[in-house]
Automatic annotation (TrEMBL):
One of its GO terms (molecular function) is DNA binding. This is Restriction endonuclease type I HsdR N-terminal domain-containing protein. Coiled coil: none annotated. Residues 63-126 form the Restriction endonuclease type I HsdR N-terminal domain. It comes from Trichlorobacter thiogenes. GO terms for biological process: DNA restriction-modification system. Gene3D superfamilies: 3.90.1570.30. It holds the Pfam family HSDR_N. Signal peptide: none annotated. InterPro entries: Restrct_endonuc_type1_HsdR_N. It comes from the Bacteria.
Length: 390
């Protein structure tokens, strides 16, 4: 393989040096095309491997059709090559090649070239009907390191028609995926932002306002991730995500526990304040931040609507080996399924294990329902007198 790569590099230099002298198709064939066939192991001096002006008639369409070169393996034609002058552009020149390809079912690959650029075609969409789009383009004036590996599949000693069809499919998918990834890297859309946030444990379902807020952060994360990959390579281990991803809003309170001056048994922990900040972020746009208030007790920490004790959205029990939360609404089968899909455990007593406060972001839908329940005054009226219950 190193020798093959060296030959391609030398051939690329040769093209740069002599292409300006290849003003005709015949000169292009002799100076630029045949040397590459020889490097691939298809000696132009061996008619069992290469035949020029090979007959490829499409019955009933056109007679006396001849392709510039047919490559043979084990006595059978396996690839057709249509040659153009070095000065010709290859666009709109595939008409003849299509007819040649379609006339010979045993041929799995076809190429058109001006010596500088090679375009390779197969029949992925319809068997024995050449595709209109090449699955591989190699430009010897800007030869990439990966091109040698790709071209090695066309070597005489490695030529495998079925393998090349699979390779063509892979290359087509690679191009499509690369274009999609490049689009995401340059202008990540809302779906990509949600994917990154969810994969990083930063969130489950995001509100449109959160997606908008996270977009510049994800863009910066993409730049830093690409930089790390370039420096360390794809084989480098991916570091574990931080406990608190940068994209998740932080509370403004000081670190550590805060003791209630009126009751030293009530200690508001940093995790409890974090729960409040996260709930406020999730409900942003559905309720004012001032309407979502935290209330601590000796037993649990509540997040309440409008500061009313009876209109609590959730209660957080952080003083357990595994912290958990409960909501003011029942965990129906649908809500339980949502939590399970988010990777969270709904416990027998209708509570949800919450190993990290950030996992609340995966329960956005339940929080939205809890808020709607709290906003409805009818849910808090005493039966009979219409007064709000305590």
């Amino acid at each position: 393989m190193p020798d093959f790569k060296d030959r391609l590099v030398r051939h690329a230099e040769h093209i740069k040096n002599v292409s300006s002298h290849c003003s005709t198709e015949e000169t292009t064939k002799q100076a630029l095309i045949l040397p590459l066939l020889d490097a691939l192991g298809f000696s132009p001096y061996d008619p069992t491997k290469v035949q020029a002006e090979y007959g490829a008639n499409l019955p009933g369409i056109k007679a006396n059709e001849r392709v510039d070169y047919a490559l043979f393996v084990a006595g059978n034609p396996v690839m057709f090559i249509e040659a153009k002058s070095c000065s010709d552009k290859l666009t709109n020149h595939t008409g003849q090649l299509v007819r040649y390809f379609n006339s010979t079912p045993g041929v799995s690959v076809a190429a058109i070239t001006n010596g500088r650029e090679w375009r390779f075609y197969s029949d992925q969409k319809h068997t024995n009907i050449m595709d209109t789009t090449p699955f591989l383009v190699v430009d010897f004036e800007s030869l990439a390191d990966s091109d040698a590996d790709k071209l090695s599949r066309f070597r005489y000693d490695k030529f495998n028609p079925d393998g090349l069809r699979s390779f063509a499919e892979e290359q087509t998918l690679l191009e499509c995926f690369t274009a999609a990834i490049e689009s995401c890297l340059r202008e990540p859309d809302a779906d990509f932002i949600r994917f990154v946030a969810t994969r990083s444990d930063a969130a489950g379902r995001l509100t449109p306002k959160q997606v908008e807020a996270y977009t510049p952060i994800v863009k910066q994360a993409l730049v830093e991730a690409i930089s790390k990959v370039v420096v360390g390579g794809l084989s480098a281990p991916v570091p574990a995500p931080a406990t608190e991803p940068a994209a998740v809003p932080r509370c403004d309170c000081p670190d550590g526990d805060v003791v209630d001056p009126d009751n030293p048994k009530i200690v508001t922990t940093e995790a409890e304040r974090r729960v409040l900040a996260l709930v406020q972020a999730i409900l942003d746009g559905k309720a004012e931040e001032s309407e979502i208030v935290g209330k601590d007790t000796e037993s649990y920490f509540s997040v309440c609507y409008q500061g009313k004790n009876n209109r609590w959205l959730l209660r957080y029990h952080g003083d357990r080996a595994t912290p958990y939360i409960s909501f003011n609404i029942p965990m129906t089968l649908e809500r339980t399924k949502q939590a399970a899909r988010a990777g969270l455990v709904v416990q027998p007593n209708n509570t949800i294990a919450l190993v990290k406060p950030e996992h609340l972001m995966k329960l956005s839908n339940v929080l939205f329902d809890a808020l709607e329940f709290c906003k409805n005054d009818e849910n808090f009226k005493r039966k009979g007198n219409g007064e709000e219950s305590a």
